[in-house]
Amino acid sequence: MAMERNLRLKVMMEMVAMARPSSRFVKCDTCQHFFIILSDTDSKRSVKEGRHQISNDRTTVQRHPPPPPKKIYEYLDKHVVGQDYAKKVLSVAVYNHYKRIFNNMPHSSSVTRQETSMADNTQGFTPRDLLHLSGISHSNALGVSFQQQQVNQESDAKSARGSDILDNVSHDLRLEKSNILLLGPTGSGKTLLAQTIARCLDVPFAICDCTTLTQAGYVGEDIESVIAKLLQDANYNIEKAQQGIVFLDEVDKIGAVPGIHQLRDVGGEGVQQGMLKMLEGALVNVPERNSRKLRGETVVVDTTNILFVASGAFNGLDRIVSRRKNEKYLGFGAPVSESPGRRAASAADIANFTTISSAAEDNAEKDALLRYVESRDLIEFGMIPEFVGRFPVVVPLHSLDEKMLVQILTEPKNALVPQFKMLFTMDKVELAFTDDALKTIAHSAMERKTGARGLRAIMENILLEAMFEIPGSDIATVQITSEVVKGDRPPFYIRKVKLEDKEYCENDNRDNQERAVNT
Predict the structure, then answer these.
(1) Which of 27, 47, 137, 323 lies 20 to 30 Å from 263 when distance is taken between CA atoms?
(2) Does pTM surpass 0.85?
(3) Which of 125-129, 143-147, 200-204, 241-245 has the highest mean pLDDT?
(4) What is the pLDDT of residue 154?
(5) Which of 67, 175, 49, 214 shows the shortest CA–CA distance to 116?
(6) What is the pLDDT of residue 355?
(7) CA atoms within 13 Å, Cβ hemisphere of 59
(8) What is the separation of C-alpha 226 from the centre of its chain, rounded to a whole number of angstroms?
(9) Do 181 and 391 touch, CB atoms closer than 8 A?
(10) In sequence order, what are the beta bridge partners of 209?
């Protein structure tokens, strides 16, 4: 037996030596069997892929329980001032997104166990396994009949599953997603809400700027780049990326411009049309990690369970709502504007920019109109009906008043006043603001009509002179008052007491005490 085994091994080794480097199959003339040549690289690659698959499955299964909406709301309330309704909607949407993931993927654990067992079997290959008996006889040398048999078995299984579905009386309920559209004035906290909620989630979250998107085939980012950013945030784990949330920022900038329907709008209506199937649920080809798009190496991502949240300022939308609500009072013979849509609404908004004396009254009027926004108003603005229909939840955000702007300056964890105080502390200088100064800053931001974004510009302008004078000086404290904010006077500087002045003061006090004792 030992001599026969050695003889057979010798014949096998001779076959390997005679085989061409490009051939992976060799045939034994003695037993008429085919063998597969496995190199050291192949075995290591199989072991590595098996371990990588197990790690991905573990990250997919081991997931924290979903946080309740109240806890998400409390976290948002610590970083974002106001917008209570928008925070409630986002908190509930995120919580329902977690529940939908666990409901729509009930068999993930069984699939994971099967893949884990397959990976364990793959790890059995070692570099010593140079020859592996394939079990293919010379009658089906290339395994054609075996492959055909496997295909037939798969088709039979599919037909059996189809008949079972037809015969079943009950069916599994599948939860569908409800995409969200946030609309409100600039600087009201739409992007900040997205950035804040992304830090407290256990699912991938991607923020995409719609202003850079173009239709496929044109210069700019393709629509698939939205899912590519989500896949990158998921560390290229496809299963985890298919459960993520995508935030589409500045979605109003892809609205169709009226009056140029004879031309192709590649950055507006074309982008909306390309997003339709992705928003509803489709298979999207995304470039693979570390691969150029021209090489065609892509991975398929299913967007069925991906939640999309869009936001935009929609400047002039309040004028469209106002015109719609007042149509019934105009009558049949009343003149109609010749240029409806976004362009006319924006023009009316700009014309009315300086007519209202009070910025608070203007903001209150716009907020009241945005509460009555309907789908037809968004369609008249420039969004196509198919795009609007895929966002069933529309959330209007209100403008920020003077009291809220003062809170934004001081209360949130990443407020502006603590940021500038830290900058001054690095130079060992104390920065102080009076209450009247904070109110004046908030009033100036309301007059600029840029929302919370105008606060930083005002702060930079006020503290520019102080930040120029402080380094290398003897200034100990900088005090900002209402007059400083208005530009009536420079900041108040309290300088450090020099050493010689301190000694002079101590000697003077000592002399005064001695005179008092002598008298």
Answers:
(1) 323
(2) no
(3) 241-245
(4) 58
(5) 49
(6) 40
(7) 17
(8) 9
(9) yes
(10) 249
